[in-house]
Amino acid sequence: MPYLQGVAVAASVTTLSVIAFDRYLAICRPLKRHLSKKQTIGFIITIWAYVLLLLSPWFITYDLHSSREANATHLSCRSTMTPLYNRIYQLGIIFCLLYAGPLLFIVVCYTLVAHKLSRRTGNQDEFLRKSSTAQDKKQMSRLIKMLVTVVLIFALFNAPAAGTQHRTQQQQQHSTCY
């Protein structure tokens, strides 16, 4: 279970990064050619291959162990990684590449989007210029709140996944490792 759970979380995180980039392109580079259906499918395949590759050490190093206590057999899933290798893997791969890196990327994309949209008011066409500046400020405020909310939700709800995967790897009891 830890491997499949990690793959699902990592694929979701990577997909959210691609969505942030797509939103950046749509708003900041509207005249640039967007992704075709074939390219989108290629991105999806690349995301899953990337995640499966990064998390393959979990698949390789987990073993199912059984122990007999009080007339009952207990199965546990344990890692065979050395503590040093496990620490490097957790910090370098899990935290940096699958949490902090995507979080930073999403923050940069949405910051650029907010900046582009905040500058837009000076370059609007005649129809948009007639709207009140108070309404523009209110809409901009809503947009910034939404972007900050998206980033905070990502940071808060994925931080436990990134932080507890080490504990999960060491302590989780399952009947299967995958």
UniProtKB/TrEMBL annotation:
This is G_PROTEIN_RECEP_F1_2 domain-containing protein. Residues 1-160 form the G-protein coupled receptors family 1 profile domain. GO terms for molecular function: G protein-coupled receptor activity. Pfam families: 7tm_1. The keyword Membrane applies. GO terms for cellular component: plasma membrane. Belongs to the G-protein coupled receptor 1 family. Keywords: G-protein coupled receptor, Membrane, Receptor, Transducer, Transmembrane, Transmembrane helix. It comes from Macrostomum lignano. Gene3D superfamilies: Rhodopsin 7-helix transmembrane proteins (1.20.1070.10). PROSITE patterns: G_PROTEIN_RECEP_F1_1, G_PROTEIN_RECEP_F1_2. InterPro entries: GPCR_Rhodpsn, GPCR_Rhodpsn_7TM.
